[in-house]
Amino acid sequence: MGLLTKEIERAPCTVEISHCFESLHAHVRFNNGAVIYPGDEVKVQGPEIMAAFGEVVSEDREAIIVRASKLEQLWTRLTGDFEVMELCEFSFSEEVTL
Amino acid sequence: MNMQVPQNSRTSGATHTADATTVEESLAIQEEQAKYDDKFATETAMANTLLTPRFYTTDFDELDAINVDGIRAEWDELIAQMEADPNKGHFKKNEDWDHVDWENMEPQLKKEFIDFLISSCTAEFSGCVLYKEMKRRGNNKDITQLFQLMARDEARHAGFINDALREAGLRVNLGFLTQSKKYTYFRPKFIYYATYLSEKIGYARYITIFRHLQEHPEHRFHPIFKWFEEWCNDEFSHGEAFALLMKTDPKLTSGRNVLWIKFFLTAVYATMYVRDHQRPAFHKALGVDPDWYAHEVFTKTSELTKQIFPITLDIEHPRWQPTLERLQRANVQIAYGKKQGGLGGKIKEWLGSAKAASCFVSLYAIPANKHKVPKITRLVPAY
């Protein structure tokens, strides 16, 4: 990893989307053990994966991981905390009026 | 691989691609399913709502290093309770789910209520993504087991809210994974403070509405409120888990970290106050005065957080309420400035931001109430 350069990596992954009453979830698992670090960007390749209501869809795809540069990683570690309030749930969006 | 669980069963032969014996049969089932999905989507003209959760990383080594042996008895009791899954099967519609007259719902109320459903669904969903990530990346069995259980609850809640959204003609789109997403970073302790508070205040919010509607059922404009009690009991146990995680390291709740705790308490209470006051139609329909509601929720949350935090905010202080009101007005001013645009708008926005910042500082500067943290942390929902 360079100080300023980004590296691009491809990783096989499995995407699971559940659009069921019992569970609404969507997860990506990298099948080659790739690990995501702060500031990295991930994009699953191919068309949008849609699950109709009542379905669980699991697909093997490829993901492109754009690795953050060393500097960007450091920056994300230092500043990420400023956004920590978004972990809190307030029932409503931040829009003042709808 | 494409596993599909069709919602409707068909009348003859195999109904699932997994049961198909020939390629032709399998293709026919898939084609039939596609037709059904398209027809359903067109007929109902469902609006698509793209869920946009955020993605986080944290210091997973620090999570792995947590040792719950010092609080083993309390920990095991909580995990056993979560594993017993008392709410399994609860989150489904039954005869208590009254008909909802979406057509005739007052338009402003409808907008605010849908905002409530979408925001709640996104929050549950994001929680599920975060917890699942912690489960997957961790190597400490105690920790991964906890996060797995919490991810289960969040996904279940999201599914339940999603069902209510479908009834309102809104289709949640989970296609966000194929969009580029950046992973941000939070320190574990910030995740504990923020999530602990969010779960406990969530419990206080839901139980207050639930008890209020028990006394005033005429204000229950949607059946989902009947499910709030069990729902918030899940939030309560998640909060218990974070309290125990913080208990494993006394440094997290002492010394300079107390200033962080005060920061989170102030930020969470203030944000809740502002957001609730932005949804007047919702609160009017429930017959709830948002000022009374805020005070009630803060009182309950403060009582609960005494289990682990050595301070609570002095919400009876003479400066507390008027400053919250000023903060709310400053927030409206910022929004008006943004909407107005131009130089005049920008100035309005800046002035609003300066006012909001000074309100926050003023709230933060109110001396906190100090108290002794009890030896036994675990609580049971009692409101």
TrEMBL record, chain A:
**Highest taxon in the source lineage:** Bacteria
Protein name in UniProt: DUF2218 domain-containing protein
Please report the organism this UniProt entry assigns to the protein.
Answer: Marivita lacus
From TrEMBL, chain B:
Segment forming the signal sequence: none
Q: Which cofactor does it need?
A: Fe cation
Q: In which pathway does it act?
A: Porphyrin-containing compound metabolism; chlorophyll biosynthesis; Porphyrin-containing compound metabolism; bacteriochlorophyll biosynthesis (light-independent)
Rubrerythrin diiron-binding domain span: 115-245
**Reaction(s) catalysed by this chain's protein:** Mg-protoporphyrin IX 13-monomethyl ester + 3 NADPH + 3 O2 + 2 H(+) = 3,8-divinyl protochlorophyllide a + 3 NADP(+) + 5 H2O
Q: Where are the residues of the annotated region Disordered?
A: 1-22
User: What top-level branch of life does the organism fall under?
Assistant: Bacteria
Q: Name one Pfam family in it.
A: Rubrerythrin
Residue ranges of the TM segments? none
**What's the EC number here?**
1.14.13.81
Family as reported in the entry's similarity comment: Belongs to the AcsF family.
Q: What is this protein called?
A: Aerobic magnesium-protoporphyrin IX monomethyl ester [oxidative] cyclase
The species this protein was found in: Marivita lacus
Question: Which gene is the coding source of this polypeptide chain?
Answer: acsF
